[in-house]
Amino acid sequence: MKRNWNARFGYKRSYDYLNMEHLVQFPHLRKLKLGECEDVYCDAEIDDTRFNTNISPHIGYTDEMNWGYSGTGPVNLAINILFTFTNGDVFFSRTNYLEFLNKFLLKNQRESLVIEKERILEWIDQKSSDSKLNGGALV
Predict the structure, then answer these.
(1) Which pLDDT value is given to residue 17?
(2) Interval 94-99 mean pLDDT
(3) Which residues of 56-94 are buried (b: 16+ CB within 10 A; e: fewer)?
(4) Which residues contact 115 (CB under 8 A, 6 or more apart)?
(5) Band of the pLDDT at 106, cuts 50, 70, 90?
(6) What kind and span of H or E run contains 41?
(7) I want to staple 113 with a disulfide (CB 3.0 to 4.6 A). Which of 9, 34, 42, 65 is the partner?
(8) Buried residues in 8-25 as b, exposed as e (16+ CB within 10 A)
(9) How crowded is residue 49: how many other Cβ atoms within 10 Å of its Cβ?
């Protein structure tokens, strides 16, 4: 009889169980929970784009995330970083992801990347302040 490991251990997605194997070798890539603000790691040593960062794919069109160019993977990573750090604010994440992508994620894809949580939180605070100054209008 085939065991359903996902249901047995309460994993939402099939790769959540596989992610635990990666944590032994890459503990810095433990997926952040919604609202948890820690440094964001993007590890170029890992080819599998589902496991090369510590950000979970909460929203978006794919589970794969990447950086270094302006394609679907980096867009998904930018949206999910903002979604995680704003405790699930879909509107803010979808409104500001492109600017966040351009500022933080257009680095060399073949190099690992660390974005300090303080820089992300400062950027979010600045964008939130800009929006309030403009009467809630998008900036």
Answers:
(1) 45
(2) 96
(3) bbbebeeebbbbbeeeebbbbbbbbbbbbbbeeeeebbe
(4) 39, 40, 42, 81, 104
(5) very high
(6) strand 40-42
(7) 42
(8) eeebeeebbeebeebeee
(9) 17
Alpha carbon distances (Å) from 19 to 15, 35, 68, 79, 111: 6, 20, 23, 21, 21
pLDDT, averaged across the chain: 83
Tokens 């995680």 found at: 84
Helix axes 72-85, 90-100, angle to 10 degrees: 130
- Which residue would you say has higher pLDDT here, 90 or 6? 90
CB 49 within 8 A of CB 66: yes
For the chain, domain boundaries: 32-131
